Amino acid sequence: MALPTISGETLDIRSPRPISPDSADLSSSNPCNEHEPHHIGVPDSGRRAWLVVFGGFLNFTASFGLLNSFGTFEAQYERSMQLPTSTVTWIGSLQMFILFLSGILVGPAFDKWGARKLMLSGTFLCLVAFISCSFATRFYQFLLAQGFLFGLGCALLFYPTTSAVSEWFDKRRGLALGLVCSGASAGGILWPMVLNEFFMDFNGAKTHRLTAAIAIPMLLLSCVLVRERHVRLAGHDMAGNEVKASQTSISKAIWDTRFLGLSSALLFINCGMMVPFFYIPGYAQDNGVDTTMSNNLLAISYSASLVGRIFTGWVADHIGRFNMLILISILTSLATFSFISAKTLTTFIAFSVLFGFSSGGIVPLGSACVAQTTPDMGHLGLRIGTMMAISSIGTLAGGPATGAIKGATHAWPGVFIFCGAVTMAGAGILCAVRVVSNKRLVF
């Protein structure tokens, strides 16, 4: 007899937990026994679960895609307001800082209220941000609208999405998060082309309104599709098994050696990984690559990251998420070092592909590793948010640090040596966390 379902989740009314051939014992199976550990199955597939993934993809295409395309806005603002790059860059830096830092508040809010209320609030803030930009004429107005409001709106969209997807998947969590995050890469490829056409054909005000007209419907649809599971996961681990009361406290969720080690590793990795995306075009131009092709290197890198996010997520589900995160962190470091020897267009393309492919999986696999080591899924949002808040230190520090190196040396090698070194340091911390956490080959 087919089991009843509610919103795509199978509910077994015959037993409080699935009975496997290894554990079946009809004489001891008693649904009324309150002392038996309670098990909540994780779907890992099904229409409802994959709709959440599709909604997350749309979300990231519209929100993160625009974040990744800030360079297009930056060029327009420099021309229209006659401001130097060092000034306009603060808008993009504030976006990313608010996105990362807000996790410490938005993550726990997901644990309490779920996804939809937060995502609708984020969509509204994104709408207000772009409408405000359409009326803005001064730098501080763009800083508040696109830097602060849009960054906060993206935070209210990002954390509920990654947390909700993690609730629906266990064995396929790496693949699911990789598919969702590939939306950011897709947006990073498509939005610059759309925005360049808009800025050429229309004024800045109309461009911001048209951008909102495209992005907001996508975000509203994602609000409908993305949702947390109706089954309450608080008090259960990532596989749906009931955990001891000592594992469910907030202090245990935060002051956990594995979690703090993982967060510290990602702080270093993000410090080194984010910066090369800002410098690739300028570095290529200084080596004789024309302006158009040097800007296209970013699109090439984002295309590779789209493939990398999906592929590394799928492989991680088979060889272990920590193992895969360590591997791609090392590859990202080596790819960063390799830019030092890039002198021709061919080598720039090759290294951009390698860097994009290897770095693409870091964000989704970082969240997957947090979920994997979360003792109580009721604190998943809190832990992902806290991890991102800790990582924000590296994200914020990377730009000024490399800028200071470039200013002091008046050369590029020091920039890429610094980025490669701190990324490799993060990979080293990950190795230590992985060894201490679990001795199994696949982890």
TrEMBL record:
The chain crosses the membrane at residues 49-67, 87-106, 118-137, 143-162, 174-195, 207-226, 259-279, 299-316, 323-342, 348-368, 380-399, 411-436. The keyword Membrane applies. GO terms for molecular function: transmembrane transporter activity. Residues 49-438 form the Major facilitator superfamily (MFS) profile domain. Keywords: Membrane, Transmembrane, Transmembrane helix. Gene3D superfamilies: MFS general substrate transporter like domains. The keyword ATP-binding does not apply. Its main location: membrane. It comes from the Eukaryota. Residues 1-40 are annotated as: Disordered. It is a multi-pass membrane protein. InterPro entries: MFS, MFS_dom, MFS_trans_sf, Proton-linked_MCT. It is found in: Membrane. One of its GO terms (cellular component) is membrane. Belongs to the major facilitator superfamily. Monocarboxylate porter (TC 2.A.1.13) family. This is Major facilitator superfamily (MFS) profile domain-containing protein. It comes from Akanthomyces muscarius (Entomopathogenic fungus).
